[in-house]
Amino acid sequence: MPNIFGSRKTAPLAAVSAAALALTGCVGGAPIPSSSAPITQAEAKQGAEYHPQFLEQFGGAMSGPQAAYVEQVGKGIAVHSGLGNARESFTVSLLNSPAHNAFAIPGGYVYTTRQLVTLMDNEAELAAVLGHEVGHVAARHSQRRQQAAQRNSILGILGAIGSSILLGNSGLGDTLSRTFLQGSQLLTLSYSRSQETEADNLGILYLTRAGYDPRAMGTVLASLAEQNNLEARVQGRNASIPEWASTHPNPASRVREALAKASPLAPGVTNGDTFLSRIDGLLYGDDPEQGIIEGLRFIHPDLRLTFTVPQGYYMVNGTRAVSINGQVGQAQMSLGPYTGDLDRYVRGVFAGVGGENQRLAPQEVRLTSVNGLRAGVGTARVNAQNGAIDVVVYAYEFAPDRAYHFAAVTPAGRANVFAPMFQSMRRITSQEAANVVPKRLQVVTVGRGDTIAGLARRMAYPTAQEERFRVLNSLGSGDRLTPGQKVKLVVRAR
């Protein structure tokens, strides 16, 4: 995801309370509705109000030919929903986010991230994802879920698909930890199984009406499942949330049902080559303007800072924070209003972590220095539902009016697991900043003699190159390349 460093403005998450939706449900046997009521004036007003906030939350809308192409496909599928009788009834945005994410809000506003687009193999899959999101809007699912979300004290229904839904809560489990995790996008999944089923069915209906291959819903879900598994293996975590533990099953459990639903329907077009040529060059992974994750290291070339997380932990570059997750506790790195008083800053962070339901303050704020930076640290112990937990806030002054901080939550007595990370925060040199180069998607044509292993070596990763290449191109263990076939690579942008 994009993070707070892309903008110094920090609108509260509570403002983003319109319902986004997750492409992580299940396909079933529910009947496919044939039509839906048009967008109402109230829905259009609500969407227009929340649209700018969602753009800010997810890194902003991209522009240029790739964004125009996504908009074209999205409007083309949305007109088959009955929500609007013209393409102008819909607003489709390509978001500058490295998360595999898609959602929509009332009023005809539909979104997909660039990272999710890079995982797709053809235009039909793009239409399937956007059609699923439109299906949630057509069925008015967000309106039904907003009240329930408010009862659960969720600061916004930010549904995330792919790896974003897998982070979870490591058992800390009370109001304090839930409030803490919301800032890093680790939010409760929003939609029920029946609602996901209905949105899938509607998406397949729209694909058929538009002349696309309806099997694309199943194939894009298969790609998401493989991406989930790959990310879990690379990061050393479990690949999925057990279905009984969540209202949303793993995408893998939906593939067979989606393909079965589509099999009796007439096949349509996929437009694979057109799609690949249109997304060639798309930014992949983190945007340097929002900070880059390189293994255990986070580096921000514009803000001239870097830190390293402990072995066994992984990061997610979020809109409001960089989240750090592992077996023993979680943390996030963010910023807040700073007036030159580190003691006051640390205490303010504690108040924000605790929220309205938990008055939280450190026993003391200790002033120190880390790698030449003025720093302040405070700790508090809280009795939580599953046992006592420690909350640590470590703040750093980078300028008289600018400070950043870690907020960490661990089981009581285990906060030292983050000590190396706290001590790793430092400024970077101008040369280090210049060395940060983004990754981009490159579409190449397979030549005679090219192999998966050979092309995979061109992937801009030090490890798991062939695994990443296979997942990116939906290639199974027994698949082979053929001359003339187009495939995707991830390369450095130099």
Automatic annotation (TrEMBL):
Signal peptide: 1-22
Gene3D superfamilies from the UniProt entry: Metalloproteases ('zincins'), catalytic domain (3.30.2010.10)
Domain (LysM): residue spans on this chain: 442-489
GO molecular function per UniProt: metal ion binding; metalloendopeptidase activity
Keywords assigned: Hydrolase, Metal-binding, Metalloprotease, Protease, Signal, Zinc
Cofactor section: Zn(2+)
Domain of life where this protein originates: Bacteria
InterPro entries in the record: LysM, Mito/Outer_Membr_Metalloprot, Peptidase_M48
Keyword Metal-binding: yes
GO biological process per UniProt: proteolysis involved in protein catabolic process
Record carries keyword Protease: yes
Any one GO cellular component localisation term in the record: membrane
PANTHER family (alphabetical): METALLOENDOPEPTIDASE OMA1 (PTHR22726), METALLOENDOPEPTIDASE OMA1, MITOCHONDRIAL (PTHR22726:SF1)
Protein name: Peptidase M48 Ste24p
Gene source species: Erythrobacter litoralis
